[in-house]
Amino acid sequence: MAVEGQKLCVSVSVLALIVGILPVSGIAADASPEQVIFARKANERELGGAYAELRDELKKKKPLQFLIREYGGQIASWAQDQSHWYPEGSGPASGEATNAKPEIWTEREEFDALYAEFLVEANKLSELSYEEDNVAIAAQLDVTGKACVACHERFKNKDEHEFEF
To answer: Where are the domains of the chain?
Structure first.
């Protein structure tokens, strides 16, 4: 069953890339606020999914190191791309449904500082995932998750899909 769900997730991601909703290098500059918010939510789910998969893999009796590297890399990749997810005009003022608080745009320096911290921790996680020290990787995953939550607590309205770290 998990394989079918993964195939569906991959299929949706590939379809989104093909139709241009989720360009590989970020959200298209000419995208409407609705498209930006849709892509941002999808990207956040992918990032959270990679986090959950890595957390679950690390809990296994015999975790597969290639999966740990893959999920660590995905987290870092999504984190890097995240700098494009919050362009001007894609907040609540757009009239579109979003959990992003308006403070993202009015207090941008603080938002960018929290993002930069998250990016540093995500990159450390990715690098560490190649060391095969699963205790250290799990500890760094926790640090990375807390950096993510720090931004959520300040700049995101909670929703029913909120991920618990």
So the answer is: 32-155
